[in-house]
Amino acid sequence: MPNNTGKAANTLVVRASIPDAPAGGGIDATLNLYVNGTFRQAIALSSRQAWNYRGATTNPDDPHAGGVPYRFYNEFPVRVTGAPIAAGSSIKLQKDAANTAAVYDVDSVDLENVGPALAQPANSISVVSNGADPNFGKDSTVAIQNTVNAARTQKKSVWIPQGKYLTNSLVSKPLDFTGVKVQGAGMWYTTIYRKVPLPANAWRSQITVGSGTTLTDLQIDANAVWRDIGGSGGSDYGVNASGAGGWQIDHIWTRHVDANWLSGSNGVVQNSRTADSYGDGFNINNGNTPSPDKLGTNITVKNNFARNTGDDSFATYSDAGADGKNGQITGAKILNNTAVAPWWANGIRVAGGKNVEVRDNLVNSVSSNNALEVSVFGDSGHPLESATITGNVLTGGGGWNGPRQGVHIGSPGPTSLFPTAYTNVTMSNNIIRGSLSTGLMVDKTRANVTLTNNTIDHPATQGILIAAGVTGTGKFTANTVQNLLPGQMAQRNDSPNTFKITG
């Protein structure tokens, strides 16, 4: 493959799969990198955090417990040794005698030109001055927290210099950055690594972001091996954000964590990335419980990248709670993000809310569910009072996990706290391409749907399908359904007496 980025590349991200160990737990192996036909370096790969088996009766890491593999890729950040790979150079990944995995499946290679590490800002306190170890030799949890506490008192910021910081203290609470600006030297330079003692037992390793927090320019990684928040697999939220006073997250990279869990008011996550997660990439929510710090009001997720997520890549989640007293999320915005190859669930999910905006996002290669799901979440999920979805490119969907579509629009079911509520959504100027089943489906039970100037291209079955048993209205104007397979319909309404289409 050529370096066609137009820039010299000093880093790579290799997304690859190598086999699991016979008894589970993964293996390590290398793969050789050649530049212009000359050996450059061996790239270290591993499957220790790759293989999970859906339905395994013992644990998700056990290949002999009746489960089906549904997670088998991992991403590997690589610093290029020697000179950067010049624009136009050829790059080859080759299995040689020293590369011992039986099979290598390389899905993609990203080439980046990463600038120098950032310098310590003025009026900041370095975690190293309080005993944190940038060389990954000793636990730094207490030292980092002590620095945050001191900076909060002194009204200064926290500086985490270039390095890899071990956080595996069994006596500490999760790191709490509330009210402080915490900055690293860059997502390629500063890493906070959670080495959870496995199998973990209610051990929490999330990073708490609260009112007045800014978190920027670092990577958060972990040794977790399956999804089980605070449980035996070691998984926990990447960042758990809340607070009525607003917060900001910028230029972070989370890996091998559960969701980045985002509640509160007036929060922003931008210019960040997540990969190989065990849960959602970025989830805007109202905290599942009534709290002034967890309202889920005016939270924006923009200009982010999510790949190989273990649930929805980007989501809103408005939960009323078991007693229905938790408030509706409002003003959630999912803008200009990229979702690639979630290994479970949807590319984007809008699950309830009011004045939700989903604009100018790209979704590609959804394996199990829909490229876009527009509905509610469970029986306690709030209805979707209003959502505007525009300018998105939604490729694929309709995966292996039951009947799925490119876009699915649903509503509360009969056992919901809101059984008679309607889903209200306006979709315009979206491209829905290559669904493995229906392009766009309106499903039971109640929905008011406005479709304007959308393009549905090459679905495997119908372009637009209104399922039987739907009540509501459809205002469909200037939509295009193209490249249908033989015998398929552009639009089919199986609820003609209860779902009226105009336009």
Overview of the molecule:
- Helices cover 3% and strands 40% of the residues.
- By secondary structure, it is mainly beta.
- The chain has a 25-stranded parallel sheet that branches. A twelve-stranded parallel sheet has the order 13-16-18-20-23-26-29-32-35-38-41-44.
- The longest helix has 14 residues, at 141-154.
- It is globular and about 70 Å long.
Distance between the termini: 48 Å
In helices, the fraction of residues equals under 10%
Mean pLDDT: 97
For the biggest sheet, the summary is: 25 strands, parallel
| Principal-axes shape call | globular
How many beta-strand elements?
Answer: 45
Q: Low-confidence parts lasting 5 or more residues at pLDDT below 50? A: none
Count helical runs. 1
Structural class: mainly beta
Question: Could you outline the blueprint of secondary structure elements for this entry?
Answer:
Layout: E1 11-17, E2 28-35, E3 38-46, E4 52-54, E5 68-71, E6 74-79, E7 91-94, E8 105-112, E9 124-126, E10 135-139, H1 141-154, E11 157-160, E12 163-167, E13 175-176, E14 181-184, E15 190-194, E16 207-209, E17 213-222, E18 239-241, E19 247-255, E20 260-262, E21 267-270, E22 273-275, E23 282-285, E24 300-302, E25 305-307, E26 314-317, E27 333-335, E28 338-340, E29 348-351, E30 356-359, E31 362-366, E32 372-375, E33 387-390, E34 393-396, E35 407-409, E36 423-428, E37 431-433, E38 440-442, E39 446-452, E40 455-457, E41 464-466, E42 471-477, E43 480-482, E44 491-493, E45 499-502
Parallel strand pairs: 9-11, 10-12, 11-14, 12-15, 13-16, 14-17, 15-17, 16-18, 17-19, 18-20, 19-21, 19-22, 20-23, 21-24, 22-25, 23-26, 24-27, 25-28, 26-29, 27-30, 28-31, 29-32, 30-33, 31-34, 32-35, 33-36, 34-37, 35-38, 36-39, 37-40, 38-41, 39-42, 40-43, 41-44, 42-45
Antiparallel strand pairs: 1-6, 1-8, 2-3, 2-7, 4-5
